Amino acid sequence: MFFFRACAMAEMTREQIKAVVFDVLGAIAPELDAAAIAPDKPLREQVDIDSFDFLNVVIRLHERLGVDIPEKDYGELLTLDGAIEYLSGRLAERAGRPRL
Amino acid sequence: MLSEVISKPRSGRRPAPNLADYERTRAEFSWERVAQTLSGLPGGRGTNIAYEAVDRHAAGARAGHLALRWLGRNGARRDFTYRELAELTNRFASVLRQLGIGSGSRVFVLAGRIPELYVSVLGALKNRCVACPLFSAFGPEPIHTRLSLGGGAVLVTTESLYRRKIAGLRERLPQLRYVLVVSEGGEIPLTPGVLDFGRLMASASPWFRIPPTDPEDAALLHFTSGTTGRPKGAIHVHGAVLAHYVTGQLALDLHPEDVFWCTADPGWVTGTSYGIISPLTNGVTSIVDEGDFDTERWYAILGRERVSVWYTAPTAVRMMMKAGAEAARRHEFPDLRFIASVGEPLNPQAVLWGTQAFGLPIHDNWWQTETGGIMIANFAAMDIRPGSMGRPLPGIEAAIVRRSGAGRIEVVAEPGVEGELALKPGWPSMFRGYLNDEERYRKCFAGGWYLTGDLAKRDGDGYFWFVGRADDVIKSSGHLIGPFEVESALMEHPAVAEAGVIGKPDPVQFETVKAFVSLKRGFDPGEALRRELLGFARKRLGAAVAPKEIDFLPSLPRTRSGKIMRRLLKVRELGLPEGDTSTLEASP
Q1: What range does the domain containing A7 cover?
Q2: Which among B292, B508, B539 is the nearest to A31, CB-wise?
Q3: What is the ipTM of this complex?
Q4: Interface test with B, best of A52, A55, A56, A77 (most B CBs within 10 A)
Q5: Is residue A100 domain-resident?
């Protein structure tokens, strides 16, 4: 099951990754209005999440996508664009392909 | 647990700890003597916190010393010497005077950790207003409750916070005369009563003479939460500065050349007492970071800014622990000498983790909004019992007591016995009242003791150990959260019939806010409604206060008198035996 999921994830498009990010964010902060999020601005200035929420976002992204997100990389997840870029890179690495 | 002790060297430490011999310092200590080491307003015109924190340094040899170093969220930095801080706070005091805001008026600040926040609090104190910083992560409801309970006459806030949280509340805040908005580069909506902070500051006088200030004049207002009813506004006076000053030396071991970083937000009492007042009264350099918690960012700040004394919170420590001690050891902390923590009890593993990550144990200490300053601490020169909050500060008498009915208090002399932690009133930073709530204030005192509401025990060597809260107040990420405030917000949703809110034990947050709700007829429990309620509560309360989890129940357990039994909800959540439920109403 896990193997299947990991393979499937590696094929994910940016749109699909974005959907997962919003799904995870939406579970923690359901009040968020996805359409109003500026993808290049810091998420925490647009969605009211505290440090604990942020940690849970990272944990759930890890669970959903099956990629490790070490602490030193948290800075890459500050904006929506940054998060998608970072996650698609990690997924491609997992699949043994060069970054998109 | 008691067998584990972190021993400290007895001599040769540099700089020598301010409190080297606990028993002796305690025996020789007097608040009168501390008062003599502060300046007092020139000409014997009283005591003003802002004068002790800023002006007396600006008038002397420390005028050019770095007072605040502000680190912006996105890499900006601004430095303020004591001289510059004196001028800026004079300007803000002049702004208030020009607006006709007089002594005793409440000046609220709702902003992230930006320089204007610090300038506003200190400037308000100069003008003898009562300063009340609010946590900027609060949602509109907690903000409205506090502004209206506190009768705020002025609010300093930022452009984006004004738009998101304040504009919609204006009509419900008739006492609020002015909102001073700090520009963020956009348009400030100049409706009546809304003024541009920057413009006012630029045209205000840089000169301001602090009017005579009685040490008993109200200075600070900090809201804290109770089990029932609305938040309580604890009032502190200008004379509290004695405690801010001396506890910085004794409990945090501040020395003149220190670079000090208190990570707390001034919206909570720690961020005001130790993020503003204590370091400045001691003339040290204080680091202010606008950014949110981030392990790598924090390690970089500790190293790059050469922080020597660091005061942080257990939740932050536990989040850093998740990244491992290795992550810390990749950085160098050349000047770090002393680490302290406050908010909830620091578990022994976290105390020891400090040693692995920084080569320094973490010193837990204990105090609360009402005490205004650190009351019980693990000191630099004293052995640490990991998991213990330490021993009472010089000038503070603490005891474990039992309420024996009819207002009688029995002191528990026997070590290791659980009871309520109590303090002998009379220290300078003790709160002087709850705003407009004399009765609740009176109830905090009995038999010559201030009753803290925390359960604790004392061991045979005089170290105190936290056990739990005596009431249902939730301790989460270093903040006290009142279940009633959360329940009230949930009750506003049309689907909710009943709400009960508890603190669920959590390895990172200490407790996490969990709500149980029962629904009105016609509403079905399910994921969609659960999310809707979560979002509903978060929009009103803000992420820091809103529940992180919501469960549905057919009905909530109540006492015969109809009160929701939060304790039973908690016991069930934890899967513990339910004990005596004789006062429980049978479920319909």
Answers
A1: 2-94
A2: B539
A3: 0.84
A4: A52
A5: no
